[in-house]
Amino acid sequence: MVGYFLILSVIVATARANISGQIATGSCVCVTGSTVNARHTASIHGNIVGTVHSGECYKYNGHMHTADGYTWYQLQHVHGQLAYVAGSLLQTSTASHCSASVSTHSGTFAAGVVSDKCMQCICDLESGCRPLDCKWDVNSNSCGYMQIKQVYWEDCGKPGGSLEACSKDKHCASQCVQKYMSRYINHYGCAHNCESYARMHNGGPAGCKHTNTLGYWSHIQSKGCSANS
Fold first, then answer.
1. SS3 19
2. Which of 56, 124, 133, 137 does the annotation list as catalytic?
3. Contact in structure between 50 and 165 (CB atoms under 8 Å)
4. Helices 170-184/116-127 angle, 10° precision
5. Known catalytic residue: 137?
């Protein structure tokens, strides 16, 4: 799957003027592939720290390595950390693009049945809306912005290549939530509102009917959301 995404992104990017060779430290570079894995090390086998998307721009940190047939460039502030992306998936740009990319695609919530307001309350409650590392919690790991678990990620269609990568990408994590809610909202007679989505997020597809999710909903309300948010 990892190789597939890399190859697909290379194909998408071949029509662009992509990076090769040394570039100046601090250069602004922008992603050309539609969805690209950013990695902890300069290798197709490196751990994925998150996904980046076409049009997003980052500053080059000055470290370049060649491995697995690609030249890798280390970029700053990719989901709050340093990460490598293959140069075939990048192109240089003006500094203004990096200055203007504070609000990028990966920093926004995916659109869907759950409103941005409701999604923000869930994100704030689950993680302080931060890309937290996976941590053992109630019989399995909970990961990232939305504290998504493996089964939840599988139910939402396995976006982003891996649970860890998707969960640390705000757009991917919220896309997973949107797909999960769209899949199950009509199964148990839940109302199409923020209360149902929050309680389902906490208690599974029938969470809106479980009394043990009422406490979670109370915490969501304390974040500023109502049923109609």
1. coil
2. 137
3. yes
4. 110
5. yes
What does residue 142 show for φ and ψ, rounded to 5 degrees? -115, 135
Task: Identify the active-site residue in 126, 164, 169, 195.
Answer: 126
Task: Assess contact for 13 and 33: CB atoms under 8 A.
Answer: yes
Please tell me the pTM assigned to this model.
0.59
User: How high is the mean pLDDT in each 10-residue block of the chain (229 residues)?
Assistant: 39 51 89 87 88 84 92 84 90 76 58 92 94 89 96 91 87 92 93 97 95 97 95
Q: What are phi and psi of 49, to 5 degrees?
A: -95, -10
Checking phi first, is residue 156 left (phi over 0); if not, alpha (psi -120 to 50) or beta?
alpha
DSSP 17: -
**pLDDT value at position 79?**
67
pLDDT of residue 94: 82
User: Based on the number of CB atoms within 10 Å of its own CB, is 128 exposed (0-12), middle (13-18) or buried (19 or more)?
Assistant: exposed
- Burial pattern 137-168, b for ≥16 Cβ within 10 A else e, equals eeeebbbbbbbbbeebbebbeebbbbbbbbbb
180 sits in which H/E element: helix 170-184
Assess whether 116 carries a catalytic annotation. Answer: no
Using the structure block, give the residue that is written with the tokens 């697909």.
Answer: 8
